[in-house]
């Protein structure tokens, strides 16, 4: 007997739960609604509906070249309704959500959708990128504020380190490499950022 509830986000390998936070959004065009709804339907075997709005966050618009969408997936089965949410973007014509990194890994897709005019040339630029990362990859506080308390931005030579929490005795976070002009040449995620780097975090306003 088929399980009456199959998680849409499990069936859609590109979808993950999005942060619950104040939305900066606007209505979608009919074409955008159809593309998003069809992307979900192609992976689904149960009766579902989708609701979506386009994000209008200033940080996302300035840092990235692609729009982002808040999508609610509503799944119906006998005597049961389940809702899940995701933050999607358009990557090569397909609606996907960038998977939250969990290990040491390059992030070519994240690098590809960066605005080509966005550079990290100052602490203010770095804090703008951090704001965008907070929307895409919020630091979870379900089990406490330990990771949130480690949040910081460090400049280490030609690398900018965006600390997102602790990993045993070390730190974890995003690493963006820049050239002499401030252009971002690489993006990755690291679990073993030394906690004792002789660098002071960027001061926040």
Describe the structure.
This protein is α+β, with helices and mostly antiparallel strands. The chain folds into 2 domains: 89 residues, no CATH class; 89 residues, no CATH class. The protein is 22% helix and 35% strand. It has 6 helices and 10 strands, in the order H-E-H-E-H-E-E-E-E-H-H-H-E-E-E-E. The strands form 2 sheets. The protein has a 5-stranded antiparallel sheet, covered by helices on one side. A 5-stranded antiparallel sheet has the order 6-10-9-8-7. Strand 9 and strand 10 form a beta hairpin. The protein is globular, with a radius of gyration of 19 Å. The termini are far apart. Keywords: Signal.
| End-to-end separation | 58 Å
The chain-level mean pLDDT equals: 86
- SS elements, strand count: 10
User: Which outline best applies?
Assistant: globular
Portion of residues within helices: 10-25%
Q: What proportion strand?
A: 25-35%
Write down the secondary-structure element order: HEHEHEEEEHHHEEEE
Radius of gyration: 19 Å
Count of distinct structural domains: 2
Characterize the main sheet: 5 strands, antiparallel
Treating each run of at least 4 consecutive H or I residues as one helix, how many helices? 6
- The assigned structural class equals alpha+beta
Poorly predicted tracts of residues: 1-22
Write out the strand line-up for the largest beta sheet, numbering strands in chain order.
1-2-3-4-5
